[in-house]
Write a structure and sequence with these properties.
The protein has 212 residues and is of the alpha/beta class. It has helices at residues 28-44, 59-68, 81-95, 113-123, 158-164, 176-179, 185-194, 198-211; strands at residues 3-8, 49-55, 71-73, 100-104, 128-132, 139-144, 168-169. It has a single domain, classed as Alpha-Beta Complex (Spore Coat Polysaccharide Biosynthesis Protein SpsA, Chain A), CATH 3.90.550.10. Helices cover 42% and strands 16% of the residues. It has a seven-stranded mixed β-sheet, with helices on both faces.
């Protein structure tokens, strides 16, 4: 089974506000874009992924991510994260009704294609499945097999909500790069320790230079 991955991305000017203690206002949009670029590039390099659809209304992000090979879906609902994911899944399935769909966070700069493949291979065994984030509170990936609704419930304690919705929690070792999303300075340091993609590495280097 190969998957269409749906990635939501809010306007860069409003992204990553919780990194305020680590990155100044002028640097956060660039960091958010770098995270998304490395996430999309890794997803597209994954053997289990057929294509990637990014739901965003940010013009710059749309251009940069389309250049990597992502399909850009306008965020027509403009109703937040879960509305964007539901819309993206609907657009994808309007074109390919029987495709498997996986929602993936846009802030996984350490994402490794082989680890993502392992998660998706495991998810294919269930109608709906999810992977908890590194903090074991949220969710970084939610998957729906062909014919199944995605039913996203991201944000806050989404691990509990996705479990309550009937999705199976994937319990896998050695997939840290798929769990490590970046919301805070500590998250960024953890991602850097795992080894981030080239765009995040460059943006982080600028961040360190600015802090000197």
């Amino acid at each position: 089974m190969r998957w269409t991955v749906v990635i939501p991305l809010k306007p860069l000017a409003r992204a990553k506000s919780r990194l305020a203690d680590t990155a100044a206002d002028g640097l956060r949009p660039g960091l958010a874009l770098a995270f998304a670029q490395d996430t999309v590039a890794a997803a597209l390099a994954c053997a289990e992924v057929l294509d990637v659809a990014v739901v965003t209304d940010d013009a710059l992000a749309g251009r940069e991510l389309a250049a990597l090979g992502a399909r850009i879906v306008p965020d027509e609902p403009a109703g937040g994260l879960n509305a964007a994911l539901a819309h993206g899944a609907a657009v994808v399935r309007a074109r390919s009704p029987e495709c498997a769909v996986a929602a993936l966070n846009a802030d996984l700069p350490a994402l490794r294609p082989l680890e993502l493949a392992r998660v998706l291979e495991s998810a294919a065994e269930f109608p709906r499945a999810f992977l908890a984030d590194a903090a074991a509170i949220g969710t970084t990936l939610l998957a729906a097999s062909p014919g199944r609704e995605l039913l996203p419930a991201f944000g806050g304690d989404s691990r509990a909500r996705h479990r309550a919705s009937g999705a199976v929690e994937l319990v896998l070792g050695h997939v840290d790069s798929v769990r490590q999303d970046v919301d805070t300075g500590d998250d960024l340091r953890a991602a850097l320790a795992l080894g981030v993609g080239p765009r995040t590495a460059e943006a982080a280097a600028r961040l360190l230079t600015a802090g000197q």
